Amino acid sequence: xxxxxxxxxxxxGERPYPLFRGVFAPLLFISLVAPNLVFSGPWFFSTxxxxxWALALVPLAxxxxxxxxxxxxxxxxxxxxxxxxxxxxWLVLILYITAQPFWAELRSPETFFREWFxxxxxxxxxxxxxxxxxxxxxxx
Length: 140
Prior knowledge:
Layout: H1 24-38, H2 46-79, H3 85-99, H4 109-133
Helix pairs in contact: 1-2, 2-4, 3-4
């Protein structure tokens, strides 16, 4: 028996993204741990900081591409793709940050882009983790 299409709950053993099985946890672990192991040291260089961010965000981007490809190929009904209320609020925050330069001057474009990618990657990690577990973390 399949769950209703509007339900984010999944049956045991059913995964929303078949290519995603076994890939999400290692990529998330690499994204959270590897940058600090590789680029920790007594000196701070801006190029190393940029490489640290790239190493942190590339595994999440791969997860996003795998999940997005599955949703594009199989559709939202077959993958049970939905975002919960917390993810919607977080997405509104990202859209607000994106629109902010239209009314406020950017003092540091580099910082703006770095922070935007950080907030977007945290949102992506939350949405993917919710979908991997089969339900939202904040099921209210």
